[in-house]
Amino acid sequence: MVSVNDSFADVTSRVWHAIGADDGSADWPATQLTTTGPRAVLPAAFDVTGLATGAVAVATLAAAQFLAARRQSKQPAVTVDSRAACAAFASERLFTPIGWTRPPLWDPIAGNYRAADAWIRLHTNYASHRAAVERVLGAHDRETVQAAVAGLPSEELETAIVEAGGCAAVMHNRGQWLASAPGMATADAPPLTVVERRLSGVGTPNAIGELPFDGVRVLDLTRVIAGPVCTKFLAGYGADVLRIDPPGFDEVPSLLPETTLGKRTAALDLTASTDRATFEELLAGADVLVSGLRADALKSLGYDDEALAAVNPGLIIASLDAYGWDGPWRNRRGFDSLVQMSCGIADAGATATGQAEPTPLPVQALDHATGWLLAAAVARALTRRLTHSVTARIQGSLIGTANLLYSLTLPDDHLAVPAPKDFTLVATTTDWGPAQRVPLPGRIDGVPAHWSQQAGPLGRHPAMWATHK
For the whole model, what pTM was predicted? Predict the structure, then answer.
């Protein structure tokens, strides 16, 4: 066992301050944290183990702080194991159905391709994104896609696919990225920014329960991995999380057994007046709104920050996107694997390992870390709303988390290779059948995490809160 004052001290402290904890009451609570496990678990050209351990630590500490504020008691101690944190970062891959089959994590034509002058990654897990690639290339399987890509300039192909409504990213080295317009605009982007606004009254929470977020209502407008990681953590420590999707929305099905855990899921059409009225009723009763939509998506629906505050002045608004909140790509569709290609991570991995093709991180670390950091910022915002009568606007991005990862010093033993026995799985039930999954990493003394809803399909619950105010 090592304490936080040893091998993880610097990285956990850096991650703590990366969540926007600069309000004067955010001293790094090192005395309440103990870290265990090896300094390197996941082999990579970056400190993925440190990022995972630090992200889990700050979210768990922030939850413990909120519980202490609600109870007006001493903060309970927190323990984080690096193996458990890294397993959580691989949770969608480690999830194991028992007696049933989960769809593949990737669409058959998703992946890296060699264009005429560089590597390019095509992301086709959504049907609309695959259709855009097929329209641009006139190809419909991996062999014909590769043949079509091979003769095209990579940048022109990327632009054509994006303009067609799809998702693609050319592999750049770090220098190329920082010299580009989107790279220059986000070169100093932090993982999170937090802007507070004073309230006219004190934000009083619901009756105190066993878990930190008991009685806290979270409206979840997130997709894929990063946002759902945030809301799954909040649900695991007691929040009433209600996920809202458009009717008939087709999420990546292989992710749902992990990302819907602990949540109720409902369908609303925010372009229809009746459903908008229901949504605004939910907003009025919510404590937190978490959105993973593109930067201006809510605004285009008539729900910019001012409109949201008019419905609910005390609402904490947390949003994330892929390529940041400034520059020409602020509204660009993006995913972890694409950001890794764009900003230099996949190129750095290839250089470090001597590979001739893109070499990404061993897990979707930008997604997972952003989700944990967003959860930490939400927990701190709930504490500040209770203790200082302020609410918060929180913005995070995968590109900001990539910048944080670049700033971390790589440990000497970073090429450690994990064995399957290093990762503990636990039994779970889902609407599809039994399975084994990664447990929630991090431990708050005396506070066992618990999910009140098993994982299941989207749109299976009524659009209403389960908890009473």
Answer: 0.94
